[in-house]
Amino acid sequence: MDVERTLTEKGLKKTSCRIAILALFKKKTHALSYVDFEHLLPLGFDKTTIYRTLYSFEEAGLIHKVDDHSGLLKYAFGEVKQNGHPHFSCEKCHNTYCVETTSTMKLELPKGFTSNQISTVVTGLCPFCYE
Amino acid sequence: MDVERTLTEKGLKKTSCRIAILALFKKKTHALSYVDFEHLLPLGFDKTTIYRTLYSFEEAGLIHKVDDHSGLLKYAFGEVKQNGHPHFSCEKCHNTYCVETTSTMKLELPKGFTSNQISTVVTGLCPFCYE
DNA sequence: ATACAAATGCAATTAAGTTGCATTTATAAT
DNA sequence: ATTATAAATGCAACTTAATTGCATTTGTAT
Asked: I need a labelling partner for B24 at 20 to 30 A (CA). Which of A62, A82, B107, B118 fits?
């Protein structure tokens, strides 16, 4: 929970924008987009700053990008292990979550195709939007 | 291979743009983007027309959209069955292909999440780019 | 041949994301 | 504590994908 210590550990300067954004990441359980930050942050940081903050967090391994096909790139708190993990995107509230899974994603490809990475996005309803 | 008959069967007017685009779809084995059509079509159709042609083809079930995370929406020839199918995107040439598979994509979700659709994009090297 | 609906082209717009540059800020050195 | 400096920020402008409105053109049924 100690936002400022996390920044120091990762060698990132403790700036107001980074503190605010990292605090939000630690609070929310779903992935966040730059639009979320524009709306959720009390101080109106410039979108350039938000994008660059997200970039520095990604470089530091604090977050990872999630393309949930919404047209708005999202960022999820936590580093991605090995081959990535699936993501779940709610059709109703459009919140996107990382899915922890034990099953290894594998897929037979046609002859001659070699697989390097696999990206899976499941859409459906999250517990808050179901029924 | 008969482009014009396909259009008639689908209740689509046989316009030059549709004929040209559908002919390309029938020739190519990978998904195509509006940029491809801008480059590949002899007559310079307006991008609005290209997009609207793609829309009408999608409505008619002739093609389906593929988001391969390239930032450029692609369209693959052929209707999508049931729950969709995986797609393969080559890291080098950036061509994207539909993957025919028998294995049913399934994934355990956390409690309370219900799955509706699953989208899988595999990245790696295609046979033409391997080694 | 003609009428009408649909398709097209053009211009303008929206929105995500990026880049350059001048200014400000965090931090390490003094 | 003060200062130097490298990095972070804000602003403006730009790029690119995709969409919309509208006037014009084209395909097709009559």
From this structure: B118
Does B116 sit within 8 Å of A125, measured CB to CB?
A: yes
Q: What residue type is A13 in one-letter code?
A: K
Q: Identify the sign of the CA torsion B41, B45, B51, B54.
A: negative
Q: Which residues contact A102 (CB under 8 A, 6 or more apart)?
A: none
Entry pTM: 0.91
* Chain A residues whose beta carbon lies within 8 Å of the beta carbon of residue B115: 88, 122-124
The one-digit pLDDT tens for each residue of chain B (131 residues) are 699 999 999 999 999 999 999 999 999 999 999 999 999 998 889 999 999 999 999 999 999 999 999 999 999 999 887 678 999 999 999 999 999 887 777 788 999 999 999 999 999 999 999 87
Of A101, A114, A125, the CB nearest to B124: A114
